[in-house]
Amino acid sequence: MTLLDMLRALVFVFMTNFLCSYFAILKEMSLTLQKNDITVDQVVDKVQCVKKSLLKLKMEKELNETIHKDVKIIADTDNKIKVTYHGEMIGISAQQNREKRSQSAKMKETCAETVNKAILQVKNAAMKVIDETVKNIDDRFESFTNHKVIRAAAIINPHNWPTDNEIDAYGDEQLTDIFNHYQSILEARHVNLSAAKLQWLELKRLILRKKEDGK
Fold this sequence. Notes:
The chain is mainly α.
C-alpha cells in the first residue's frame, strides 16, 4: 500500500467514525420531532441538547477520541506501519528490506506525517460540518424557540411547575402573553383575561391535588 492509499483509507475510517457519532446525535432530534404527542418545551429542550452535544463533539479531546475509535496504528519490529480498524487490516506501509534499513526511520516519520495529515483533514471537515449544522439548527428553530407565545406554552407541562408555595402565581405572566396574542379570537368567544387566570389557578390546584392523591 502506498502512502497515498494509506491516507485515503485513514481519511475514510476517521470520517466514518465521526459521522457515526454525528448522525447518532441528530437522530435523537429527528425521532423527537416525529412524535405526535411532543410538547413545545420538549422540542425546545431537545434542540438545545442537540446543539450542546454537537459543540461538545467539536471539542479537541472529544473529536480526537471519536475519530480514533477502534483504529490502531502500530509500528512493528520490521519497521512497518500497520493500520487496523475493528481488528481488520486496512493499511500497511511498504516493507523495508535489509538494504533499506537505513531508511526505516525516515519511512516511519513519513508514515506518521501521513497519519497526522489524515487526522487534520478529517478534523477540519468535521468542525465545518458541526458549525454548519448548528447554524442551520439556529436558523430553523430560533424564531420558534424564542417566540414569546411558544415559550409561554411551557407552563402547561407540570414538570416545570414550582413548589406549592409558589404555584399560585406561576404562569400568570405567560398566560397574559398567550391571551394578548389571541385576544381578538378569545374575546369573540366571550373569554376575558380575568376568567382565564381564574381557570388557570383552578387547573393548577386540581392537578397538584391529583398528584398528591397519587403518592
